[in-house]
Write a structure and sequence with these properties.
The chain is of the alpha/beta class. The protein contains 9 helices and 6 strands. Helix 1 crosses helix 4.
């Protein structure tokens, strides 16, 4: 294994919560009579709740005060957290548990690097709350991806330099953030064909074939 540490994005890499985010934002949009669809939802991948709200509000027919925006963001989060209670260990994405077990056997340090403030809640739902050596999430940072802050924070918590760590991301903004932090990046899912990524894979089901695994 080429790297001493692996930093995982959460949503779309460890578990897919994209549809839950969509349903929660959709409920808010319906309440406020704002046009919203899955194409708009794709633009929200990897960015913070308030930045996501600002994108959605571009289609609003009225202006909102900061206090109203805060209430809307909190409403969306409460709806999202209700939906998160449906998650269970079976919702881990394909290949994830086998890859995590492999890294554990290899003695590779592991961290989560996510913009979400619900990271620990999600990890508890899928029974991985005690698996990682470090968690850096939306509660630790001021700037969401593509800013590298969350990955730099994860590296620091692992006690490793960025060039010793591999980031695994499914969003273009996350790939950019990982590279800006000084890490190599494996693009999976929606980012599997993003040319800037260091490595590319559909998912983690065939991780043994990836170049960084073979490069001892």
């Amino acid at each position: 294994m080429k790297y001493k540490g692996v930093i995982f994005d959460l949503d779309g890499v460890i578990v897919s919560t994209d549809n839950l985010h969509f349903l929660a934002w959709e409920k808010l949009a319906l309440r406020e009579n704002i046009y919203f669809n899955r194409i708009i939802n794709e633009k929200l991948r990897g960015i913070s709740r308030f930045e996501s709200l600002e994108i959605i509000l571009k289609n609003a027919k009225k202006r909102y005060t900061n206090s109203e925006k805060e209430e809307m963001a909190n409403y969306k989060n409460e709806e999202y957290k209700k939906l998160l209670t449906t998650l269970s260990p079976k919702d881990k994405l394909v290949g994830v548990q086998d890859f995590l077990d492999f890294l554990k056997r290899e003695g590779v340090k592991m961290a989560i690097g996510s913009s979400s403030k619900n990271t620990m809640f999600i990890l508890k739902r899928i029974k991985l709350e005690n698996f990682f050596d470090a968690v850096a999430d939306g509660n630790d940072i001021k700037n969401s991806k593509p800013d590298p802050e969350v990955f730099l924070c994860a590296c620091k918590k692992l006690g490793l330099s960025p060039n010793e760590c591999l980031v695994i991301e499914d969003a273009f903004s996350g790939v950019d953030a990982g590279l800006s932090a000084g890490c190599d990046v494996l693009g999976v899912g929606s980012a599997k064909e993003y040319e800037k990524a260091t490595y590319h894979a559909k998912d983690l089901s065939n991780f043994q074939t990836l170049e960084f695994i073979k490069n001892k």
